[in-house]
Design brief:
Blueprint: H1 19-30, H2 34-48, H3 54-60
């Protein structure tokens, strides 16, 4: 079993007034937090567009934003 997934990228999306409450309701109906419901909905939309999100995980495997010693990469 793998460890927990860490999300390091932030995506800000502007939506029409009231849309946030729709996401909250959909998440509650699914028994999920709004952020998790949104991640799943985006993942499903990417798959529906014919792109496999697992390709990103394979491409980025073993990489991180900073080296293990905490210094900035050159």
């Amino acid at each position: 079993m793998s460890g927990p997934v860490r999300y390091s990228e932030v995506l800000t999306v502007q939506v029409q007034p009231g849309f946030r409450s729709l996401i909250d309701k959909a998440a509650a109906t699914a028994g999920a937090k709004p952020t998790e419901w949104t991640r799943q909905a985006l993942r499903e939309a990417v798959r529906a567009a014919g792109i496999d999100p697992a390709d990103i995980a394979r491409r980025d495997a073993g990489t991180s934003q900073r080296p293990p010693n905490g210094e900035r990469a050159a």
